[in-house]
Amino acid sequence: MNKPESENSSPNTGNADKDSGLAAAAASAAAAMFGVQSSKAHQRDFQKASPGKLIFMGAVMVCVFVTCVLFAVRCSLEQAGMAGN
User: Which residue ranges does UniProt annotate as crossing the membrane (predicted)?
Assistant: First the structure.
């Protein structure tokens, strides 16, 4: 009548795979980039997420950040009339 523990835990295994997707890696990279990630989330990420996904999303986040900074500087220089073009 009672199911063994291995059968009861199988639906949770699906959630663990779902949590380690690119969206979770993006959220983890963003939290780490701004320094607001808890130690619990940090441990969870390194136990469940693949290093490749975390490295990829970290690189994407850095590229987006640098692009935003360059865009902001270029817009500021244009507003000040100091654009190099």
Answer: 20-42, 54-73
11 Cβ neighbours under 8 A, 6+ residues apart: none
Residue 60's SS3 state is helix
pLDDT top residue among 85 and 55: 55
For tokens 């996904």, the residue is 53
- Give residue 14's identity as a one-letter amino acid code: G
Count of CB atoms situated within 10 Å of the CB of 39: 7
Cα(57)–Cα(27) distance, integer angstroms: 9
Closest of 10, 30, 11 to residue 22, by C-alpha:
30
Structural domain spans, the chain? 5-80
- Tell if the pTM clears 0.70, that is, is over it: no
* Helix spans in the chain (H): 5-8, 10-19, 22-34, 39-48, 51-80
